[in-house]
Amino acid sequence: MSVSYAVAAGSNQSEPQLPLCPYFEMGECNNENCQFVHGLICDMCSRACIHPYDEKQQKQHFAVRFFSSSIIDFYLMVQECLQQHEMAMEQAFAEAKGKGKCCGICMENIMEKSLRFGILENCRHCFCLDCIREWRRNQTFDTEVVRSCPECRQHSNFVIPSILWVEDEEEKRILFEVYRNNMAQKQCKYYKVQNA
């Protein structure tokens, strides 16, 4: 825990009365002799907004105060804090699913190489987007063969580009719906619309 210059120098103000450093709270304080207190980082909102010496302020940040005039504001702040924490957790879990996944064609670790996954509609095999697109462009084999998974030969009509690995059937269904909706908004480069 860092102690501010004002506290170390024996400021006349008591420690709980010293305000939090607004720069440190937003992520960075460049002043080595800062006159403010550098807050502790909240596990939920990841901000340095907890006063290390003010128990009242700590309780206000962590617990709902019933019968308070600002209960709605406080409740909304806690809800936002929890939502940010949940989103960060979901993102971390989603990224963790793809760690160690190697392309079934080039055998490269997809996330280590900062490549995108090429997710097939009807199978769970893992490929990087470039390799599976190259496989499907192959003109020497029948269309039915190149539209199938190179490993299990399960036919898939779509290859979805994704920065995250999706294996769960429900997540995959949602991913395909979003992809189809996005593609429906774009004009096909092979179909030219004639203006009337």
Automatic annotation (TrEMBL):
Q: What is its EC number?
A: 2.3.2.27
Q: Which SMART domains match?
A: RING (SM00184), ZnF_C3H1 (SM00356)
Any GO MF annotation of the entry: zinc ion binding
Reaction catalysis annotation: S-ubiquitinyl-[E2 ubiquitin-conjugating enzyme]-L-cysteine + [acceptor protein]-L-lysine = [E2 ubiquitin-conjugating enzyme]-L-cysteine + N(6)-ubiquitinyl-[acceptor protein]-L-lysine
Instruction: Indicate the segments forming the C3H1-type domain, all copies.
Output: 15-41
Q: Which InterPro entries match?
A: MKRN-like, Znf_C3HC4_RING-type, Znf_CCCH, Znf_RING, Znf_RING/FYVE/PHD, Znf_RING_CS
**Zinc finger intervals, C3H1-type:** 15-41
A Pfam family reported for this protein in Swiss-Prot or TrEMBL: zf-C3HC4
Which Gene Ontology terms describe the biological processes this protein takes part in?
protein polyubiquitination
Protein's UniProt keywords contain Iron-sulfur:
no
Q: Does the keyword Zinc belong to this entry?
A: yes
Q: Which residues form the signal peptide?
A: none
Q: Which domain of life is it from?
A: Eukaryota
Q: Please provide the record's keywords in A-Z order.
A: Metal-binding, Repeat, Transferase, Ubl conjugation pathway, Zinc, Zinc-finger
- RING-type domain segment(s): 103-153
PANTHER family per the UniProt record, alphabetical: IP09428P-RELATED, MAKORIN-RELATED
What is the name listed in the Swiss-Prot or TrEMBL entry for this protein? RING-type E3 ubiquitin transferase
